[in-house]
Amino acid sequence: MLIKNDNIEIIKASGEKVKFSLHKLRASLEHTGADNTTVDQIIDVVRDELYQGISTKEIYNRAFALLKKKKSHLASKYKLKKAIYELGPTGFPFERFVSTILKYSGYKTTVGKVLQGSCTTHEIDVVAQKNHETTIVECKFHSEQGLKCNIKIPLYINSRFQDVKTHWNSKSKNELLLTQGWVVTNTRFTKDALKYGKCIGLYLLSWDYPKDNGLKDRIDRLGLYPITVSTLLTNREKQFLLSRDIMLCRELIDGSFYLDHLGISDTRKEKILSEIKLLCNK
User: Fold this and answer.
1) What is the C-alpha to C-alpha distance for residues 98 and 164, in angstroms, rounded to an integer?
2) S-S: 83 plus which of 118, 182, 229, 263, CB 3.0-4.6 Å?
3) What phi, psi does 281 have (nearest 5°)?
4) Which residues lie closer than 8 Å to 80 by C-beta, 6 or more apart?
5) pTM score of the predicted model
6) What is the Cα–Cα distance from 220 to 145, expressed in whole angstroms?
7) Residues whose CB is less than 8 angstroms from the CB of residue 171 and which lie 6 or more positions away in sequence, other chains included
8) Helices (H), 79-233
9) Rounded distance between C-alpha atoms, residue 6 and residue 19, angstroms
C-alpha cells in the first residue's frame, strides 16, 4: 500500500505534536485480530480524512467506529486502553481490576489492607502472595489521558514499602517474607521514574512497560478484558455490573443473570454474551 500523508502532524492527549504513523495505526488494528482486508479498508478511510493538527482522539474514534461496523468484538479489543480509563473516576475499581489480573496469574490477593510499618500504618492497595512470598502493590490510576507517573511516585511508594517490609519481616508469625514492592499505573512512567524503579528494585508495571509484559500484554495474553470494553453495554449497565464485582467480561459469562436484573431483553442479552464470548475466545 502506498503511504501518503507522511508529513501530517497529529496532537497527542498530552498536547505533544508528532508525525502521523501509518505503521502504528496498522499495528493497533492488526492487534485486534482484524483481517488484512478490514485493516486496509479502515486505513484508506482514515488516511483520506487526515488534516494538519488532527488529534489522536479523532483518529481513534474514526477507526473505532469503522471497526465496530465490521465486528463489535474486535472494536472491544481496540478500545482496551479507553476502557481502563472508564473504570474511574476513582482509582478503587482499578485496584480491584489489578487484583483480579494477579489472581488469574496465580496470586492470592487482598484489596485495601492496612499493614503496620516500623514507623506508621499504611493502607496498601493490593497485597499479593505467591510461591511463599508476599508482594505489596500500589496502583496509580489516571482518569485523563496524557498524564504520566513521575519520579515522585516510586520515591514515595518505596519509602512506604521499606517501612512495611522492615516490620513485616521482623515478625516470625509472617511465614511469607515480604520481598517485593510494585507500582502499577494505567498510563506510563517518565524516564526518571523507570530509572529510579530499576535502580532501587521496585517493580514498575504500566500500560506498555515492561516491554512485551506490560498491562496491555497481560490483559491480551490472559483474556482478562474489563467489562468496560463492551461496545453493547451502556455506561449505566457497566457501572451496575462493576458494583456487583463483575470486573471482567469472562465473569459475565457465568454471571449472565445480572443482565436479567438490568431488564435486558433476551435478544439483546444474546448479542452481548455472543460479543463477550468471541472476545474471550469462549
Assistant:
1) 21
2) 229
3) 55, 40
4) 216, 219, 220, 225, 229
5) 0.86
6) 20
7) none
8) 80-85, 92-104, 152-168, 191-200, 215-222
9) 7
Give the model's pLDDT for residue 154: 97
DSSP state of 263: T
Question: Cell numbers of 147, please?
Answer: 498524564
Instruction: Show contacts of 40-48: CB within 8 Å, 24+ apart.
Output: 40/1, 41/66, 42/66, 42/67, 42/70, 43/1, 47/4, 47/5, 47/22
| Correct CATH for 92-222 of 3.40.1350.10, 3.30.365.10, 2.60.40.1120, 3.30.1780.10 | 3.40.1350.10
| DSSP 8-state assignment for residue 49 | T
End-to-end alpha-carbon separation of the chain, Å?
Answer: 35
Residue type, 216: K
**pLDDT tens figures, 90-133:** 778 999 999 999 999 999 999 999 999 999 999 999 999 999 89
- Here the cell at position 59 is 483518529
**What does the alpha-carbon distance between residue 187 and residue 174 come to, in Å, rounded to a whole number?**
34
Instruction: Give the model's pLDDT for residue 4.
Output: 52
Helix residue ranges, H only, 79-210: 80-85, 92-104, 152-168, 191-200
CA distance 3 to 24: 13
Degrees, nearest 5: CA angle 44-63-212: 105
What's the maximum distance between 2 C-alpha atoms anywhere in the chain?
Answer: 67
Domain borders along the chain are: 9-70, 92-222, 226-279
